[in-house]
Amino acid sequence: VQLQASGGGVVQPGGSLRLSCTASEFTSDYYAIGWFRQAPGKEREWVSGLSSSVSGRDGTAFYADSVKGRFTISRDNAQKVYLEMGNLNAEDAAVYYCAADTDSLGLIVSNTPDPYDIWGQGTQVTVSS
């Protein structure tokens, strides 16, 4: 049971990237999925989250104020959750992690790391001119 984050890379300020979170051996749409990031010397920071899609919809999205209007989280099937990132700046540079909370029935999207019990390995996002 694991998650894998991918799609990171080097982008110029103002540019865009799409990160993917792929679940293996479990169905991620049953659970709340969160995206976090951690820059060197800083604590892990919640970026965005998506509740489960078991209600028949794709889930409800939540965003940190720092990324609201620039990032979009979405789910396209039971195994993939995306984070579309636009208008990137130097403060967005970090290692990005996706995580699943398998204990809340997917109804609660936490903005702290503690409830998330399955974590991907992280993907590096570098913003540089």
What does this 3D model show about the protein?
The protein has 129 residues and is mostly beta strands. Helices cover 0% and strands 47% of the residues. It is built from no helices and eleven strands. The chain has strands spanning 2-6, 9-11, 17-24, 32-38, 45-50, 61-63, 71-77, 80-85, 94-101, 118-119, 123-127. The strands form two sheets. Strands 2, 4, 5, 6, 9, 10 and 11 form a seven-stranded mixed sheet that branches. Strands 1-3-8-7 form a four-stranded antiparallel sheet, with no helix packed on it. The termini are far apart. The model has no long low-confidence stretch (mean pLDDT 92).
Based on Cα principal axes, name the global outline: globular
Percent of residues in helices comes to: under 10%
- Our estimate of the beta-strand percent is over 45%
Low-confidence stretches: none
- Please state the structural category: mainly beta
Overall pLDDT level: 92
Q: Terminal Cα separation, in Å?
A: 38 Å
Q: What is the H/E string? A: EEEEEEEEEEE
Number of alpha- plus pi-helical segments: 0
Rg for CA atoms: 14 Å
Give structural attributes.
11 strands; 7-stranded mixed sheet; 4-stranded antiparallel sheet; globular; 0% helix; mainly beta; 129 residues
Q: How is the secondary structure organized here?
A:
Elements: E1 2-6, E2 9-11, E3 17-24, E4 32-38, E5 45-50, E6 61-63, E7 71-77, E8 80-85, E9 94-101, E10 118-119, E11 123-127
Parallel strand pairs: 2-11
Antiparallel strand pairs: 1-3, 3-8, 4-5, 4-9, 5-6, 7-8, 9-10, 9-11
In short:
With 129 residues, the protein is mostly beta strands. The protein has strands at 2-6, 9-11, 17-24, 32-38, 45-50, 61-63, 71-77, 80-85, 94-101, 118-119, 123-127.
